[in-house]
Amino acid sequence: xxxxxxxNVFKAESGVxxxxxxxxxxxxxxxxxxxxxxxxxxPFGVFEFFNDDIASQIYxxxxxxDRSVAHHTxxxxxxxxxxxxxxxxxxxxxxxxxxxxxxxxxxxxxxMVEINQSxxxxxxxxxVENQIWRELAQTNEATANALRNNLQQVLAxxxxxxxxxxxxxxxxxxxxxxxxxxFDDQDGSGRERKDDNNEVxxxxxxxxxxxxxxxxxxxxxxxxxxxxxxxxxxxxxxxVDNCPVCNCVKSAGVQVNMG
Length: 259
Prior knowledge:
It holds the Pfam family zf-C3HC4_3. InterPro entries: Znf_RING, Znf_RING/FYVE/PHD. Keywords: Coiled coil, Metal-binding, Zinc, Zinc-finger. This is Putative E3 ubiquitin-protein ligase BOI. By secondary structure, this protein is mainly α. It has helices spanning about 20-35, 40-180, 200-205; strands at about 10, 15-20, 220-225, 230, 250-255. Among the domains are: about 1-35, no CATH class; about 210-259, Zinc/RING finger domain, C3HC4 (zinc finger) (Herpes Virus-1, 2-Layer Sandwich). The strands form two sheets. It has a three-stranded antiparallel beta sheet with strand order 4-3-5, with no helix packed on it. It has a two-stranded antiparallel sheet with strand order 1-2. The model is unreliable at about 1-45, about 175-195 and about 200-205 (pLDDT under 50).
């Protein structure tokens, strides 16, 4: 019986040798062969090998990603810092430019204020000066009117005296021409000069008081000041220093229109 059912020896994974015989042993053998207490032991070892390789690759990729992110972050940080620096420099330059322009405008405003003040002072000074000149012009106008009135009065007086003198001397000349009197001292007109000191009377009798005492060719038209003798013409007044009638020093000559 034992030969028909040979004894089967089964060595378990634990190292214990098991012997079985007969159908029961075979059945147990089949059952034991079909039963594997660790059916996934070999696949787990393979997967562990692949898992280690994948984990290493993932770790390396993670390191590369971290390095790439860190590099990119550093690059972005540097770019941002450079951009901020450029913006800061631009803002500083713009601020300085604005301050410079403001200072220039303030200087211009200050100069304009000074010029305005100077112009205001000049206007005030010119206003005062204009008032002074206006008052002076009014004074001069009043003086000129007074002098004009005085001159007209003097001329009227001289004209009146000359007319009276001509009327009187005309009668005397007629009487002397009829009598043919004797002359001890005669001038160019043939009339006696009895009194050398009375030049005015002799002049009026000799020339009728109308002709220039200097040249005797032109009509007297300049009144000498201050003696007020109408005795020289407009051509001779510049060459006369003393009055030809009274020998008074001439200070001025006034042109008189006798028309």
